[in-house]
Specification:
Arc Repressor Mutant, subunit A; about 200 residues; mainly alpha
């Protein structure tokens, strides 16, 4: 072909094998960033990517422990610790229960549970009395102050959730719920496994 001549319009089309070789030589790859958008990443950093299992484990830890720390900080203005809050939730669900039942529901030893209830009694959030026919059995029940505090905490928790949902947007939030449902099913977790969590009050 002489100088200045254009290549013919009927130039041969690369065969599939050539196309695959060209694609294999590309040094960039598409990957999903943490915020869900697509970006290009050099193949040299592929080995530095976090394995799927490790990334899932890290994110669940961030949600679990980071969320717990955030929620614990939110309880400070109400004069509650996480343990005290979950104890109030358990008593609220039971109505009135023995110390033994409360310890089982909150997965604490009876000695630990006694200390937590002692503090709640001093704060005026829990009443404690002996059983009418068996004074060895101790019963606990929320006071009106305890029920009011729980209602205020729940209101605060819903405000936090609404703020998060607003940032995410409804489509992303619904997708998250769907994916969480799939994860819970894959891990064989059911409703009873979450009865001691914040949502138990609902």
């Amino acid at each position: 072909m002489g100088n200045g001549e254009r290549p013919p319009h009927n130039a041969p089309i690369p065969c599939p094998g050539e196309v695959e070789e060209r694609e294999a030589s590309v040094t960039e790859m598409a990957t999903v960033t943490r915020n869900g958008s697509m970006t290009l990443m050099d193949e040299s950093s592929e080995s530095e990517q976090v394995p799927l299992r490790d990334q899932l484990s890290q994110d669940i830890a961030r949600v679990t422990w980071g969320g717990a720390r955030q929620f614990a900080a939110s309880l400070v203005p109400f004069g509650l610790t996480l343990q005290q809050y979950f104890t109030l939730v358990a008593i609220n669900r039971a109505g009135e229960c023995t110390m033994g039942t409360l310890a089982n529901h909150t997965h604490h030893s009876l000695g630990t549970m006694t200390g937590i209830v002692d503090r709640l009694v001093r704060q005026g959030m829990v009443n404690r009395r002996s059983h009418a026919t068996d004074r060895r059995v101790v019963l606990v029940q929320l006071t009106s102050s305890g029920m009011e505090t729980l209602a205020l905490v729940e209101e605060m928790r819903l405000v936090q959730l609404d703020a998060a949902l607003k940032k995410m947007g409804e489509p992303q939030a619904r997708n998250l719920i769907r994916l969480l449902g799939q994860y819970l099913a894959a891990m064989d977790l059911n409703t009873s496994d979450a009865l001691s969590g914040p949502g138990a009050l609902a």
